[in-house]
Fold:
Amino acid sequence: MGDTSGGGPQRRRGRVTLRGAAVPRLTEDQRLLDSRAREDWKTKDAWRALRILSEFVEGFDTLADLPPAVSVFGSARSKPDSPECELAGRLGAALATAGYAVITGGGPGVMEAANRGATEAGGLSVGLGVELPFEQKLNDWCEIGIDFRYFFVRKTMFVKYAQAFVVLPGGFGTMDELFESLTLVQTRKVTQFPVVLMGAAYWRGLVDWLRDHMCADGKISPEDLDLIHVTDDVAEAVAHIRAAG
Structure:
């Protein structure tokens, strides 16, 4: 469900806030990726490219002066008193103390915990939101917040302005960010880019599957497994990131 404050559902589209009957049925991402909507492609898709460009420009301009940063990912559904939120809060604080800004998706759960930990430790806390059919607003701990229409623009910002990814327990969106980062490192599109998994018990089955099936079947190389660093120790995670330079 959308944010219903102020009378009816609410959705943010970039700088614009829509409420009630003004909320469109489809998001911009849904329109862009709808292969059936071909009747106006010669006009609307061409103009949509300018909107996409404007999102890149706004993101680059807003984030250009960030200090070294780490992107932290995890479930929006995690409860504030869950182990992963407690871990994310300590991680955010430790990263801030080490001089890193903390970038998240700006949502609740693990993201909010990491943003809060960074802010309370005196660090810079960044939230990069995205337009969704079930709208969620940026959490209150984001000192810099940007709402994007397009996932791929947002994902570019997560990588471009971060020195590392730290991934805590999460769902499909978290997995998407994890495997995109691993692909970028594996293909050397980014270098000296640590990928840290925190919440070892949660990730054990995935790591075992990568080793016993994907690697054993020759789909990835044994050294590809070394791209992932698994730990539950916040100090170890920060030290691993710092060691990469």
